[in-house]
């Protein structure tokens, strides 16, 4: 029961005001989502939930002025600028597990969909300073995402189903051994 109350309170911290600082200094920013790993962590290098957010020029200038790095991404041959990267590692530095970022729809109800490129979202985040091996910078901890317009991700088909006159592959392998 305590967990449900905590989740409900957490979801209720969402407001639609752009860059509104709310509970515990969390801020919000609105934009277009790319390369979102929200329902399942990206495990290519270090496991983490992440989202690249394309923002308008004014918002990009604000983030750059505050010391955050902006980048660009390539989507189907088109360069998208003003990308802000949000991430949350699966494991904290002390080895404890982090909570996944909350993913909700426009009515603040939990969403169990894969957010595809081009979805319009509001990101709730906390900023932090980091220092690693003599280098310093600023990062953005992904707290929650509210989806305003979902472009649901659907994987591309990779193979056609082939029928073999000699049976399926498993039958052919068994005959070879």
Structural account:
It is a single chain. The chain is 15% helix and 40% strand. The chain contains three helices and seven strands. β6 and β7 form a beta hairpin. It is globular. The termini are far apart. Residues 1-23 have low confidence and may be disordered.
Gist of the model:
It is built from 3 helices and 7 strands, in the order αββαβββββα. With 177 residues, it is of the alpha+beta class.
SSE topology:
Blueprint: H1 2-11, E1 27-42, E2 48-54, H2 57-65, E3 71-75, E4 78-89, E5 102-104, E6 120-132, E7 135-149, H3 169-176
Parallel strand pairs: 5-7
Antiparallel strand pairs: 1-2, 1-6, 2-4, 3-4, 6-7
Kindly list the characteristics that best describe this protein.
seven-stranded mixed sheet, alpha+beta, 3 helices, globular, 7 strands, about 180 residues
């Amino acid at each position: 029961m305590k967990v449900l109350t905590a989740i409900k309170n957490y979801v209720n911290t969402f407001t639609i005001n752009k860059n509104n600082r709310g509970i515990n200094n969390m801020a919000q920013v609105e934009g277009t989502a790319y390369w979102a790993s929200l329902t399942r962590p990206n495990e290519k290098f270090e496991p983490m939930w992440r989202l690249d957010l394309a923002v308008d020029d004014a918002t990009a200038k604000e983030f750059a002025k505050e010391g955050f790095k902006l980048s660009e991404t390539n989507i189907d041959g088109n360069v998208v600028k003003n990308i802000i990267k949000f991430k949350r590692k699966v494991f904290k530095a002390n080895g404890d597990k982090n909570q996944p970022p909350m993913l909700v729809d426009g009515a603040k109800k939990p969403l169990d969909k894969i957010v595809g490129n081009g979805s319009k979202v509001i990101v709730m985040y906390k900023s932090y300073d980091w220092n690693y091996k003599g280098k310093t910078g600023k990062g953005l901890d992904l707290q929650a995402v509210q989806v305003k317009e979902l472009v649901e991700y659907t994987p591309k088909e990779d193979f056609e189903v082939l029928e073999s006159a000699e049976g399926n592959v498993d039958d052919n392998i068994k005959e070879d051994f």
